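Hey,

The postdoc asked me to send both predictions to you directly instead of through the lab channel. I've kept everything plain text so nothing gets mangled by the mail client. Protein one:
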Amino acid sequence: MSSRFPFKTAVLLCLLVMILGWGVLRSTIRTSGETELSKHDTRQVEARKPVIVDQLPVDWEQPVEIVTFHNRPRFPLSMQKGDDYLLIVNNLQWDPGKAEKIRLSIVRDPAQQTASGCYFQNAPMFYEKQSDQVRPVGAAPLSSETNRETETQTDKPAPEDSRSFYLFVTDGDLSDKKQYTRVTGKLIKHSPRVAVYLDEQQQPTELAAGLIDEVINLLEERVLDHLAQHCGSLTDVDDNGRFTVLLSPWLGKLQGGKTSINGFVRPSDFREKVAAPFSNHCDMLYLNSALKPGQELFDLLSHEVTHAVVSSIRIRQEQYLGHMLLDEEDWLNEGIAHIMEPGFTNRDYRISEFYRQPEAYPLIVPDYYRARLWRNHGCRGAVNLFLNWCNELDPRQRFTWEFTHHPLTGVDKMEDLTEVPFAELFRQWSLSLASQALQSRFAYAGLSEHTYHLYCGRFLLGGPALRSWDLSGDDQYTLKISSTASAFIHLRADQKQDVPTTIRVRGFPGMQLTLVRIPRSEPQTSLSAELVTTSDPEQKARNSVEIRLRCHHQAQSEVALIGVEYVGPGLSRSDRRPRHFNTEDLPETLPSTTASQIQISRQETISTESDDVSEFRLGVPLATLKRDNTSQSLLVKAVVRTQAGQQLVVQTEIDLPASSGSRLAEVETAPRQ
């Protein structure tokens, strides 16, 4: 027996070493430096879940996590009279070019009215307050760490009268030298910390009045010091003591004339070892020479100089660490730049687009250009809201400083900064978005204790759109969800009786499910729209369409405001043209004259046993629509003021015809709420 014991012990020890080694290997599969994705690589944010736990009672007054063991679970859902649920579906797969479908169905078989492949538990909550999601950053001063330039004009030599710069102007390969053009800039004005050059193909008299002075004053007096205080200082790459600004008309005709942008910063310009034309070896900013003074310029400078600060800090970290760091991933680089903007001119329409269709826009996009999501408004709105939420979680108000100085990037950075696994961080952010939708949409007890902001810049907001599934009428529901995106599905049923329901899910790898119960004591507010057919030759001659709006709202409440905006892929802020109409000022009929803008009239309000129905008419001109955007639609929002003083926001979207000559079917569109 003594001779066998050492042998058995050795075998057990070997097995133990193998198990431990496998665990270590699994834990190191994703290293901190791994941020690039191949074209065919699909990754998934790790969700750290226990495999087996005891079933514990859950508090339905709090969010409930559905912990799944596979992609096809089913779960019972007791829908008591007057209750609805919000099902939040997160796609934790990590591939910006991929989307997944979730298929939900009602289980009719009495033998399957039990949970399978999942269990319920309350989702942990770690944020303390409801965020308005769009408030500008307001961190405490970091005077001890601010690296402000204190030299005077006489301490530095005058900048060069002329400099050459390379610009990528085509729609070709970024690594092809032939896709770059050489621009000569002439010095037109400088200050102690700024030098402004103008593309030689233009004259200063062609610029907007006061533009050059405004650029210098904003940078000197507001932008540079604010960013140095909250994010960090710029690196003087070319050692000339000034931050360089190049104004050029090329920015109005990039990608072979297909794209116009207001400004940009190129991270490679801050790298001295990158050869020309891929780097200008200069701390600089490119601006469109068509810009004008105003809030948009202030927001733009704050945004773009933040990019310059991020690149500067990473270059200094490389010198300190002795090895090269990856550039900040695009989604985080754009996100931190957005939250440093003092106003909303560069983000209000992007937030509105994200709220319109949250399931369509991925959050994690390491390279926007290669993912074909460059300047995608919905993606930019998503990361603006996400990073602003993370910023507000930090009670020390040092998030922006620690973010820009953190050497990692991507998911690894966010997990290290927040000390929360990204899967859980993503769930909590989704819950904070859901709370906005619930506050703006439903009137139930206790709601008046919370407040939210109706407007972001020029746009009326109501939180992310809810997709509605009527369990009483539809046995199945299908929705496509992009990677690292969230869908908010409103589960509703017959409100006159209890409805015991079991739901079967056909999901996908990386699916994350969370339930929020919505107790309601008032009739639901809703908005619908339909195109109105007409044989009126005058309306056809006006090249316009008429839309009928119907808003259902609780008795003794009123529709106080109607907001409309054009929506569609790639529409700019000016193209969306948001308009708001106070209903008390509306006429009773639409004007008969030709109009270049949307017009609206107030029709009758009908009281029923359960609610009131207010009707409106919209006249929408088609001549001014962008014909290159075939999928353009109109997003309509209604603000309902309840008797208790709550302001609810409901919305619907309707596709617009390609031309006034198209035959308009009098069929009500399904409300996209």
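Protein two:
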Amino acid sequence: MRFRQFSYLLFIVLISSFSLSSCSQNQPAKKPAKKDSLAKAWDKTIPGNFSEQVSSVFDSTQINSFVKLYPNLKTYTGDVAEFYKKRNYAYAWFENGTLIEQAANLANRVGNLERNGVYKELPYQKTLDSLINNISPKKKQTDIKLELMLTYQYFAFSQLVWRGMDESASKSAKWYVPRKKVDYNQYLDSLLSEPAGKGHINEPVYRQYELLRSYLRKYRKLEKDESWAPIAATKAYKAGDSSAVITTIKRRLYLLEDFKGDTTNKVFTPELQTAVKSFQETHGLTGNGILNKATIAELNVPLNKRITTILVNMERSRWLPVSMDSYYLAVNIPEFKLHVYNADSLLWSCNVVVGQTVHQTTVFSGEIKYVVFSPYWNIPPGILQKEIIPGMKRNKNYLAQHNMELTGYEGGLPAVRQKPGPENSLGLVKFLFPNSYNIYLHDTPSKSLFGETTRAFSHGCIRVGEPVKLANFLLKDYTQWSPEKIDKAMHQGREQYFTLTKKVPVYIAYLTSFVDRDGKVNFRKDIYNLDDHLASMIVSGKGKY
């Protein structure tokens, strides 16, 4: 029963995320191109550039050309053709030349079938990985080959998951696929009327869904009852200050359930200082208790923007597993935190550094398989070209001065790695969960960055603020690894791999709103600017702010 429920969730997740974008474009299909030009398009060898089209629609004949390249997907052509015909052949996985958020989610599901209870392999999984990895987040470009691969994989995956579902459930889910975006108010009303603990058409959902929904009700009521005019604070306020605006601030913090004192008093009391700290901590600010510019800005965020943020993250909660019955790690990118869980109980958390906006950390899941002590750092091609090679040209001793060595040549570039040691960019230990994105957790010699409020500094990998604690946690059930031996391996200056016999799941998530262990709603900056895009695919109308 549990397997069927989980499979059910997975398919509903994909149905929902896939169909949300199904009518984002409503343009007529282009006239079919000449066969010669199509043949040339398919013959191009670089996946990201095989199609010269940059508009939101494609030629219907390209579906047949795609199947000739990937014949093992032919059985799903009927579903794919019908789907795109109803869309007037508009792209489903690209919006304005950018791959939508749900695309990576689908690719991750397809790549982790066994962990999702499906013990079969879909054709061309590695091809899908390759196509996604050839898409540059910096460039506005559509890729018809990736577009169709995602759609075919979607139907292939859904067919696998639906085996074992009863016929009535299958029909009701397929019937649910919407043909247009939902009105903002209608969507909110539908979310608030769902049965407790359930999402669309009663599928089981991750616990954050219901927790966020309770705050959706509260913020919806505030929006109806309160004007929420901007607070005009001309300076920063601290404990002991007195001003008429302080009463307005007390009132707002009272409505947000942070302040419980007298809201008519103009004095900045110790009670208000405590409330300000609480508000700052749940909004990703430095908890200093001072009403500074950043804190006032967060207090002034419109209620409909908060509501939109909540509903977007309710949607994301439906992409996550319903529950886990073992240890697992979760990294929330906008929160800059790593959380360690046993089942649904939070054990501990620590700060992390994630990818910059131009080097975004990808949302996906995997399993930690290796702990690597005193690691080498194999320099990625991008850093080689931008930093290392120019440095080598300027200074013949560049590699030695940076504790690096040349190990050969690959693809016309020198293969360079940094030797183990305290100055190694990966620090003294790294934690590998094999994935096509080349993302992993690791230590770092740059400890000062963990003290920053916003911690998006890396090239995509995740730097861990407490690597020793994480190593001890992952190896706690291995008798050969005492804390002393772990410390020695981290400082031995010689790379050493250890393979975990029981792999530990790790989830990389992107939640800009969530409810913490104290039952308080949190909001974080949308550092990769994903919220508005997802919201626009869900609702239309009043939800704009």
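Summary for protein two, as requested: Residues 2-20 form the longest helix (19 residues).

Thanks,
C.
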